[in-house]
Amino acid sequence: MENKRIVTGDRPTGRLHIGHYFGSLVNRVKLQDKYETYILVADVQALTDNFNNPEKVRKNVRELVIDYLSCGIDPKKSTIYIQSMIPETAELTVFYSNLVTIARLQRNPTVKTEIAQKKELFGESVTYGFLGYPVSQAADITVLDGEIVPAGEDQEPLIEQCREIVRKFNSIYGEVLKEPQIYLSENKRIKGLDGNDKMGKSLGNAIYISDSPEEITKKIMGAVTDPARIKKDDPGNPDICMVSYYHKLFSSEDECKTICEECKAGKRGCVACKKQLAKNTIEFLRPMREKREYLEAHPEIVDEILKEGTAKAKKEAEKTMKKVKKAMKLGY
Ligand code: SF4
């Protein structure tokens, strides 16, 4: 185990799908063996664009933790905690707000993109809370002395903003905070069943960790294939077929090779190909689904994990805030 701490997390706004699984969870499961890991359930951050729907956020807190545990996050190795239960983060966010200009936040490419995507919610005028979420994210990371933040390339501007805040704080108040580094995820972005680069609920193109075998089968039967292929004996192009793409995630190398060859030779029917994919996907997700069902039937286990994790994270946050306040001459 390396003597460095990871801080990472997600907004509890919906169930996790296989894009999350291959995109970040596989990585976190590996990293928890190497680094001390803290995973926050970012309910306060979720409210920045769901302030009018607190029920949704509340409902998804436990769901998110169940997904984590089902996918292999081990509470003995990873501390899972609730952001809103660490008031020190909110306090540190206020202190940091003096160190960031509005213009700098408006220039942050990740925030810019997200504001454009949320036009329906914000109209022409974004809220102070949403514009400032990189500041509270910096507080999330640094209040726990996070040194490593696993994230995708699209998150790089947020980590850079955090590093700027740390450097500014340390240059004014003394060397108190640790400057975190991004750990670029080696895992890929998974396309939706419709071929869209993005997978999500609003697009209706995702397979969720919690999907039943029937739901998985129904979704896969509707996946986009080679549109030029009409009859079974027409030669197909597996390179533009989402079924073939998903077989690479859930089927063995030998199966993928055979599928490719038979498709190109017009010796394979799309219906049979999809049925085989559905079977393999259901089997791949089976242990996660079973663990999920167990935890859903035993919510007290999840609540206890959150209670213990939050208490542990709070203690760490209190230690940091003592140092921060002393440096800022606020320790009365
Ligand atoms: Fe896609 Fe399989 Fe049909 Fe080929 S046979 S087009 S790989 S679904």
Describe this protein's structure.
The protein is mostly helical and 332 residues long. The chain folds into 2 domains: 5-190 and 299-327, Rossmann fold (3-Layer(aba) Sandwich), CATH 3.40.50; 213-292, Tyrosyl-Transfer RNA Synthetase (Orthogonal Bundle). The chain is built from 15 helices and 5 strands. The chain has a 3-stranded parallel beta sheet. Helix 1 (18-31) links the parallel strand 1 (2-10) and strand 2 (35-41). Helix 3 (54-70) crosses helix 14 (270-297), helix 9 (133-142) packs across helix 10 (156-173) and helix 11 packs antiparallel against helix 14 (270-297). The chain is elongated and about 80 Å long. Iron/sulfur cluster is lined by residues 225-226, 229, 236, 238, 241, 243-244, 259, 263, 268, 270, 273-274.
